[in-house]
Design a protein that fits this description.
It contains ten helices and twelve strands. The protein is an alpha+beta fold.
Length: 319
Amino acid sequence: MSDPDVSAAHTTPDAQYIVTDASSRLRARCATWWSSVPLLAGETLGVIGLYAASDETSARELLDTACDRLRTEGCTLAVGPMNGNTWFQYRLVTDPGTEPPFFLEPFNPPEWPGHFTGSGFMELASYFSALNSDLTQRDVRAETRALVLFDSGITMRDINLSDLDAEIGRIYEVSVASFQRNLLYTPITLGAFASQYARLRDYLDPRLVTIAEHEGRTVGFAFAIPDPMEQQREGMTQGGVVGPERTVIIKTVAILPERELYSGLGSVLVARTHARAHELGFTRAIHALIHESNHSRAVSERTACVMRRYALFARRLRP
């Protein structure tokens, strides 16, 4: 496809599969993509997503069937679970920790990673989320770097919700430039990107979304939102009485890839988000879904501790 619009190409899989028992009850299901998938050097990729299974036997039958089909279609490596590409839900929780699930993260039964490894898959990539439970902590390195960046003409401001379409366009330009070297990166159109961010409008507090600019150009951003699942849990456990919001989720931090010029801007954006969240009465911040090799890991480690781990799996289909 000349226009890889994920909103169209990746919501519709190439094939779907189910496993039922003798009474025709559904035991497992998944979907596969092969005609429009992420690129991986040296491989012809096949993707397995929309995964669910109630037991290991059904899971193995399902995953073997999906892999056989991908092999027939010429794929050399099966990757999953991933709902088409990394702009949609992917990964499995492998170490849940003790914190409850938060908004926009994957959630799965603890048995599911074993379904994949028991069917010949191995970890292709690992990720983590980290929790800062003390927003009064100072990141001295970020404070020092902020002075240098401000002296060089970089400014920061809150997102303008009255001009959200234009703001999403600015965030889009930074995102596609920043993420293009990420594992399994897939191009995305502005329309598809905007539809994903626009659905979060009702959760946004503009004081938690920071836009960094330099000479009239957007060069970075930090996108954080309060965790609505926290409020829902409190309402359920306290008879509908909801306490104050405590947790913000730092969903995305992205910087233009001119690393030398904007070096350290990510840590400055995170520190600013922590400070703004503290001013608003929040007490915790989740650094969400970071790849183990991402440079954001070093930023997170200065103020937060790992709370959950995830993995993406792969199975060799042919040499």
